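#onboarding

Welcome to the new folks! Below is a worked example of what a typical request in this channel looks like: someone posts a single protein sequence, and someone else replies with the predicted structure as tokens. Don't worry about understanding the tokens yet, we'll cover that in week two.

Example request:
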Amino acid sequence: MAIVLLTATVDYVADYEGPTYFIPQPNNVTYQAGATATLTCSVENLGKKFIVWRKTAEPHPISVGNMIYAPDTRYEVAFAPERREFNLVIRAVTQHDAGVYECQVSSRDKLVRHIMLRIEERPETLPSQSHISRESNVAIRNPDYTMPEILLSGKEYVNTGDTIRLVCNVTGTSDIPQDVDWFRNGNLLRSISNKILISKETSMVRRKLDSVLEVRFSKLEDTGEYVCRNSEILIASQKVIVLNDGDSNVGKRGAGAEATSGQICNRQWWSLIISVFLAKAVTDIIVHTS
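Example response:
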């Protein structure tokens, strides 16, 4: 009977996979145009589940498991079992490849990890003469023509409890930008009552969109890299650090008083214990001597 129970226990331990979770990896990567980009996704205890890669701006997945479904020969799934990595490789990247990608575990629980891919033009790459001429002709035909631009502004350091406020200004060419997406550390942000508020204001005359992100009652975990994205090309980011000094002076004094009181109390207890021990030791010595 004991052997049967022991065998069953060993089989159970061998079959047990443990909880599935993502191993921390960079959420933001930057590559130069023309290079091979690798988006890393490390998963512990994947077991019989599989990984689905997709670009958040696209409705269809890029890959499911080891199978590539996107009609693009530049995609490849690289599996490194020793590092538990299920990476997406994109060869000869262009600005069109920039954006937010997600690595999702096929399970009932929604396990998703977002990665921001940025593409930088090579320093030696200069705009072609035809491109310059084309832009010049547009400007001549339309004096009000404005080059598309995106700017992100706000405070880099915020005290705990204060509001993080970032403003994303997007300028269109001939049309008004419709909207922007906000991300923190690669995770998409949505408006949440009393915590996250996203508002926008458009200008018909300037063909401009102003989107404001407010994260109220900030905490240390709100620290990270914030990104606003209007399209796959127009992306801006800013680092925000929440400092742990938002407590009031009264709170600090109270905490200090409690700590001092506790230290005094501890010293008194230790003094009493040492005194009792010494008194007992002296008594034992006197009794033994007599």
